[in-house]
Amino acid sequence: QMYKDGEHFLYETDYFSVTVMTDTTERAPTFSIPPYENFDSTLDLPTPAYLHLPGVSGAAEGWNRLLRREPRTLEWGEGVSERAGRAKLLGYDFSDLVVEKRQARIGAEKTKCKAVVSYEPQQGGILFAIPHANISVLVSIPNQSILYDKLLVNIVAKCLLNAHSTAVMGIFGRYEGNVMTYARSSNNKLIDRSARYIKLLLERQI
Fold this sequence. Notes:
The chain has 206 residues and is an alpha/beta fold.
C-alpha cells in the first residue's frame, strides 16, 4: 500500500549494507523502476527505495562503510571519469545526509517511511521493521552455524529480501508466472532474456 501511495523508503541497515543495496538496486532493471538517484543530478528520478547507513557523516565515509575499504574509481579522462570517477560516485550518498537530501527532493511527507533490517543474534535471527507503521518481524535462524556466520546470515537476508521484493512487485503485476514482463533491457544479458521471454509469451498465445 505504501508503494501504491507513492511513498519513498529508506532502508536502514549496517550489518547487511551490501545485501540491502544489492536487493534494492537490482529492482530497477528487473521491474523497470527508477534506479538510485545521484544527488548531484537534477534529472534523476527518485527511486522508491534508497540505502541509509546510520551514524555515517558523509558520502565518502558511506562508501568506505559499505565496501569496508576505500572505493576504487576510474579516473581515465573525459568520458570515463564523468561516469565512473570519484566525483560521480560521491553523488550517491548513503550517510545520514540522505534523509535531508531525499526530503528536499521529494518532500517530507513522501519520505517518512523507513524500513530497518538488523542483525539480532541475541534474539536469534534477523529483524525486519517498519517503525512508523509499528510493523516488526523477527525471522528466526535456529541453526547457530548459520546465525553466527557473516556470509551465511547475509545469504539468508538476501533470500528474504528477494522474496519480499518479488512478492511486492507481483502485487503490481510486474511478472507473469516466472517470466519478467517489466524487465528493462539495459545490458546484453537482459536483451537476450527479453527476446526469449517475448518468444515464450507469443508461443503461449498461439
